[in-house]
Amino acid sequence: MIIWDQDAILNPNIRRYAWVGACLYMAMHVLVTYFCASYYPSDFVLVALGLLKFAVCLWLFFKLSSFPTRFRWLFIAVAALLSNIATQIYIWRSLLLDNHTLLSSIASFLFALAAIPTLLAIALNFNKQESAAVRLMDAVLCLALGYLFFVMLFSPAGVGTSAVSTHLLINFEGGFLLACSVIRFLASDGAEERRFQYVFFVCLAVSIPIVAIRNRWNAAWETDFWNIPLDVPPLLFALLALNPPPKWVRNLHPPEQLVHMARGGSPVFMSLAIALLAIGVSHSNFYLGSACILLGIVSYGLRNAVIHGKLLETEDRLLIAQKELEIQASRDALTGIPNRRLFDETLRREWRNVVQRGGSLAVLMVDVDYFKNFNDVYGHPSGDACLIVVAKSIQEVLPRVGDFVGRFGGEEFAVLLPETPLDGALAVAERLRSCVMELAIPHAKSEHKYVTVSIGAAVGNAASIPDPSLLIKAADEALYRAKRAGRHRVETMDPTTLSNLLSETTKEP
């Protein structure tokens, strides 16, 4: 599939020839109308232009446009085909000298039906994610529109199938479609959709007055020359569709809120069309008109309910995915316990509780002894497995739900014990040290012959230290004391003493 390139369709020279060819075609139509005694050749010129519009839409559908705009061109092609068939029926009826009204009725009905795919091209968003229920409601609305057209044209109390009534119905359709097209054009988003809405809007704005004036004057002064202005809409459609839009259209960027409002509200065009036609029918068939008005209202409400339900379902899935991502972002990929980021957040939260409610907070810094040597002897996969087992062991030893352990970095873990005095923190630290030793993970490069841990403990409160980072420094200093003292042991450090030491160090020159 070739995505639309505004310079890939016609080069500048061919574009000029296309405009010249359109003018020559209209000149030929004038000559045919002037020199031919019969009006049939002039009518077949219009049929050829209708087929040209159909061919251009199909070409754009198969060659140039990507989803969803390509389906808009397809619906316009269907509308052009219906209108062309109706025109041919009128012509063949005259050629066969058939005065029966059946052919005229069928042609008028086809002209009316052409508005349905045109309205679908404007109103629908062609979302691949739309459910079958939404598409079924659209199909029901299309059938209801077709039936209302049938009733208006064929029922004894309807507008009838005369030329005047058909022209009035076509003018009404054109005005309604033009209003819908203006809204979608001003709120179009994306180059292809903007191009489609621009072509369709301009052609409608030109064709509606031309057709209305032609029909009115032709009824008063019937002549074949009134068919010549009808060349303009299909020729203009082909020229605009096959040429890049003007710069102001390419630079049109409506507000995002307006685009969303147009996309969300455009399906109401279908319900509004049914309501307007139902009002026209209700004066002769009250129950049918009332039922169709109710159908338009209910279908729009159900459509919104289905779409809103899908949006809520999508929102729930996004929230679940967001929570899973947050959990993954806060967990250590290797051990599965909280990572440094979550540890820092938990430390800040627990320290706020200490400041607001009083009490104390204990921190344990746990480091696996001789871990680099362990990796050198047993390999990194064994080192990873060792860290996983140690992390799980630390989690199992922590006595309370509020206690927290996270991977601080490398082979180092950090434990938070809220509302825990120094004696309690030392007791937990000793259980951690003993539990890791009881794992009996062989370590040939350790004097203890097994994997062991060294632990530094520190306890502080808001009255003794101003910042929780000082508590981490105190626990870290205690950990290094344990390492210097021979490892596989627990040491403590008073944060206040450390604060004083830091202050004295700062004061020294």
What does this structure look like?
The chain is an alpha+beta fold and about 500 residues long. It is built from 19 helices and five strands. It has a five-stranded mixed beta sheet with strand order 2-3-1-4-5, with helices on both faces. Helix 1 packs antiparallel against helix 9 and helix 4 runs antiparallel to helix 6. The two termini are about 75 Å apart.
H-E order? HHHHHHHHHHHHHHEHHEEHEHEH
Record the strand order, biggest sheet: 2-3-1-4-5
- How helical, in percent, are the residues? 55-70%
Strand content: 5-15%
Please state the CA-atom Rg, rounded to the nearest Å. Answer: 40 Å
Span of the ends, CA to CA: 75 Å
Largest beta-sheet characterization: 5 strands, mixed
What is the count of helical runs?
19
* pLDDT averaged over residues: 84
Class by SSE composition: alpha+beta
Outline the secondary-structure elements:
Blueprint: H1 12-35, H2 40-64, H3 69-95, H4 101-113, H5 115-123, H6 132-154, H7 163-186, H8 191-220, H9 232-241, H10 247-250, H11 256-265, H12 268-282, H13 286-329, H14 340-357, E1 361-368, H15 371-378, H16 380-397, E2 404-409, E3 412-418, H17 422-438, E4 453-460, H18 468-484, E5 490-492, H19 495-507
Parallel strand pairs: 4-5
Antiparallel strand pairs: 1-3, 1-4, 2-3
Keyphrases for this structure?
69% helix, alpha+beta, 509 residues, disordered N terminus, single chain
